[in-house]
Structure formats: structure tokens, C-alpha cells
Amino acid sequence: MAASAQLPRQARKMTANEKFAALQEEYLAKIDEKFLEISDSWLAYSESQGERESYLEKLYRHLHSMAGTSGILGIDEVSNLARKAENVLIGKKQLDDGEEKRVIETLAKLNELISQGQIVARTIDINA
Q1: Contacts with 55 (C-beta within 8 Å, 6 or more apart), sequence order
Q2: Which of 18, 78, 82, 119 lies at a CB distance of 3.0 to 4.6 Å from 67, suitable for a disulfide?
Q3: Where does the HPt domain start and stop, copy by copy (predicted)?
Q4: CATH at 105
């Protein structure tokens, strides 16, 4: 059979590690959108009058999701910062001034890290 008449090769299947690396890249490509959800939740809380518990719950859920997903994907710096802010919110219906300051400082660090676009995902061998 002539070279030009050969059947095309089947696409090589991705290894488990390659699939995991692709998940990391996909998550990092959307991380700024995820942080925007956190920022919007914080803004809603900080501008609200009266009942603020629902805003804190929403903020907590977004931070919890970012901390957990980032941790699973080996994006440790993001995970640690999100977890730090999340821990301030646990069981809170409202924050005092000191707690608000800690959340603001942590979110500012997280924003800086994300906006720089130099987040590094740890290489993980899922077959190990």
C-alpha cells in the first residue's frame, strides 16, 4: 500500500496523568471567574444592611469549593489562601471588625496571586 493511501493512525489515548494535568489547566483557565464569584459574594456581604448570614454562607461555599478543588488539583497556594479565609467564616452569622480585616487581607492576597497569572500546579502522579 502506498504511503499516501495508509489509513490514518488512531489518536493516542491520554494517560491518566495527562488527563489530570489537563484538568489542572482547565481549572486554572477559569480560576479568575471563580474568584469573581468570591469577590461578588464579599461585596454583597459588605454592602448589605441587616440580615447578612446568607451572604456569608454563599461566600463560605465559594471559598470552600475553591480551597477543596485547588487542593485536590495540587494548586496549593490558592488552596491555602482560600482555606484561610474559609476558616474565618466557619459557624459565623456575622463578622466582627478583626475577622472582616482578616478576610479582606486574605482575599487581597488571593486576588494578587490570581491576577498575576503565575499560579503553579504541583505535578501529581496519580498512578503512584
Answers
A1: 41, 44, 45, 48
A2: 82
A3: 24-124
A4: 1.20.120
